[in-house]
Design goal:
By secondary structure, this protein is α+β, with helices and mostly antiparallel strands. The chain has 2 domains: 2-61 and 103-154 and 204-270 and 315-429, Outer membrane efflux proteins (OEP) (Up-down Bundle); 63-100 and 272-309, Outer membrane efflux proteins (OEP), CATH 2.20.200. The chain is built from 9 helices and 6 strands; from the N terminus they run H-E-H-H-E-E-H-H-E-H-H-E-E-H-H. The two termini are 27 Å apart. Residues 1-21 have low confidence and may be disordered.
């Protein structure tokens, strides 16, 4: 079995912690848990609910207001001839309805619609970012696990070598220096393994935090550390980004809001027409302390009217408001152009990095095959005495470097792929084959 240990490394099969089957977690399940529990998503969803509640005609000046007033007054009068007491009850209903306010109500309604769309866009963007965070955190755990496994296997191989050198030293077949060198190598590998195990545990904690899992849960991650090396077309990526990138969509919404603000500022130049109406009932009850009879009166008033108001001069405040709104609208348009430029530049960088990472992954695959074959041959040579322990240790180091580089190349390709999917708005439908 000792002779087969390095095969475990090549197949990337080793568990570091004692994990139960009920803690199995695939990448798709991790994404579902992350979207369900994410703290920021819960807050953003509440903001979206508020924006939806505000998006109603009742929140504009177009809807009438109806008020009910009830007045009660008790008056006591003291004089030389005859004191008297008056109780007056006055209920009143008032209606105010703005018929026209320079299209302000329609503009406000459009603005509420855009704000609701903007809030939904913010939620969508946070969902995409959460999916990306879960993907990177999930595969980082796998990366740290495989690197820790690599050092564990190399530590075991070094221990075998140290034990063999110890036996050779005891029978006088080798020097003490060779034994001490093998012992130093074993201690270095074992120390690195312990550090990598800590890195693995910390990566698992980071994954739990992103998933909003409060327990220090040690998952058994079932999705393998395998990268999708799909070949992308630049033209298709650019088209997807321009159509689906949520950050750009949100900027378009912000641009429309700025245009509505300009229209709202211009609406102050228009007159305002209001309809008023109501009814008032008045009941007065007077009683006297002398011989005068009590007096009870009742009256009802009904009224309706129109009010036209038009601000002729406001000290230039409207002109300033319109000028500022136009400047803000122009700035928003410039920001959109800048954002498009930045996203195009970022997309080119992501695609270039992705293509390079694909080539690097292919190279590291060949390196692992070569290093594994060299390790097998060197082990037989070392046992036969054709090479010494120094040469054998160099071969081990080369093999460890090759396997580690291969695992990191896989993760880097996964990361660059996630970046492309995120910037093009396609990460929402992220799929990873469960093997």
């Amino acid at each position: 079995m000792k002779q087969k240990r390095y095969i475990l490394l090549a197949l990337v099969v080793c568990a570091i912690s004692h994990i139960h089957a009920q803690n199995e977690l695939s990448i798709s399940e991790a994404i579902q848990v992350g979207l369900k529990n994410n703290y920021d998503l819960t807050i953003t969803a509440n903001d979206q609910k508020i924006a939806k509640i505000n998006n109603t005609w009742a929140n504009t000046s177009l809807m009438p207001t109806l008020t009910l007033d009830l007045g009660l007054q008790d008056t006591k009068n003291f004089n030389d001839t005859e004191n008297h007491n008056a109780i007056q009850l006055t209920p009143q209903v008032n209606l105010t309805w703005t018929i026209f306010d320079g299209f302000g109500a329609q503009i406000d309604k459009r603005r509420y619609e855009e704000l609701e769309a903007q809030s939904a866009g913010n939620t969508q963007l946070l969902i995409e970012n959460t999916i990306q965070d879960v993907i990177l955190a999930y595969y980082n755990v796998l990366l740290q696990r495989e690197e820790a496994t690599s050092y564990k296997v190399m530590s075991d191989l070094s221990k075998d070598l140290m034990d063999r050198e110890k036996v050779s030293q005891d029978i006088g077949a080798t020097t003490t220096y060779a034994y001490l060198l093998s012992k130093t190598s074993y201690l270095q590998y074992y120390s690195s393994y312990l550090q990598k195990r800590v890195d693995y545990e910390n990566a698992m904690r980071s994954l739990n935090y992103i998933l909003a899992i409060k327990d220090n849960k040690m998952w058994e991650l079932t999705t393998p550390l395998v990268a999708d090396d799909t070949e992308f077309s630049l033209d298709e990526l650019v088209q997807d980004m321009q159509s689906n990138n949520q950050t750009l969509k949100n900027q378009y919404i912000q641009q429309r809001i700025m245009a509505l603000n300009t229209r709202s500022a211009n609406s102050d130049y228009y007159p305002t027409l209001k309809v008023t109406g109501g009814a008032r009932y008045n009941k007065l009850n007077q009683t006297f302390s002398g011989q005068s009879a009590s007096i009870n009166t009742h009256s009802t008033d009904v009224y309706a009217g129109l009010t036209l108001s038009w601000s002729i001069f406001s000290g230039g405040s409207r002109q300033r408001a319109v000028a500022i709104a136009k400047i803000n609208e122009a700035s928003s348009q410039i920001e959109t152009v800048q954002m498009k430029h930045a996203l195009n530049n970022q997309l080119l960088q992501y695609l270039s990095t992705y293509n390079v990472n694909r080539e690097i992954l292919t190279l590291t695959q060949e390196q692992v095959k070569t290093a594994q074959l060299n390790l097998e041959m060197s082990k037989d040579k070392y046992k036969s005495g054709a090479i010494n322990s120094f040469d054998y240790r160099d071969v081990q180091i080369s093999y460890l470097d090759a396997v580690t580089s291969h695992c990191e190349a896989i993760y880097q390709l996964i990361e660059s792929n996630a970046n492309l999917l995120q910037i093009t708005g396609n990460i929402i439908s992220y799929k990873q084959a469960e093997k």
